[in-house]
Write a structure and sequence with these properties.
It is a single chain. It contains seven helices and no strands. The chain is mainly alpha-helical.
Amino acid sequence: MAFWDQLKAKATELNGQLQTKTVQFKNKEFANGSMAMCALIAAADGSIDPAERQKTAALISSNEALKVFPADELRQKFDWYCDKLAGDFDFGKVEATATIGKLKSKPDQARAVIQIGIIIGGADGKFDDDEKNAVRNACFAVGIDPVEFEL
């Protein structure tokens, strides 16, 4: 099976698991961690161009697992993290990673945020090294071995 087919199958599997879990995780920390993860993926190469930001926002709003949250609230949180990353990438990265790190004591929610990062990162058919590194760093922030997600 080609890499793209494997990635697509894995994303479908993760998305199905997330749809079940996110109803349980409907809380502010999970929503913030999810949007911080999405912003880190959008900015994985060190900058966020408007097209990439828009594309990621569209993926967020169409993701079934995140439909338990009001779309406008998710968009505001995503934009806030993107603005932080665009204003000062290093500081924004620290802040977004710290937000994800708040889920360390909630391993199921932390894994779900990591899965969201993988789904968003691979949605365009390419889960590039910068995106993998962003997800890997998020794994470290929540104390999960990246090998669990084949990173």
